[in-house]
Fold:
Amino acid sequence: MLRKFSCIIVILVFCSQAWAQNGFFRQLADSALTLTEDKVTYDPAYFSIGYPNGDVPKNKGVCTDVVIRAYRKVNIDLQKEVHEDMMGNFDLYPKIWGLRRTDKNIDHRRVPNLMTFFERFGTTLPISQKAQDYRAGDIVCWSLGGGLTHIGLVSKLRNRQGTRPLIIHNIGGGQVLQDCLFDYKIIGHYRYEP
Structure:
């Protein structure tokens, strides 16, 4: 029994190390994982927030807030980064909401804007159905259908079978760790380190 238990531990350690990234992206994934300890109610309301480093109330948020908060924990303010790029390149960002100028309260909290930002300044990675292509700290975006989009971060943890990385996201149940990588149509896959 002890030998079987030891073998399982060795396999789990090997799997987590094989699929985890080192350095910045591992730190980002670890930061995102700590967010799952916070009790957060899904709330898509518009909030007036400070700038820079503004955030909606700690107990509220949506999927983008998971990514924003994880990056903030590694001293990167996506509110500021996205706002500054949109100020100078507004025409490159989606016009889905009919805005004529930037809004530092909400622009960084919209998945299509984050996708544009990550495409401009990060690494755009292939979209595949192979779990091994998604590494800790990667950003994944999905289409939920009907024009709805979603975003989350890949964790260093794997599902029970060790076949897929778990995702840190908020799709309505708060900031959670979930086995959902291939549950929706993937439309974006990025790594962003300034």
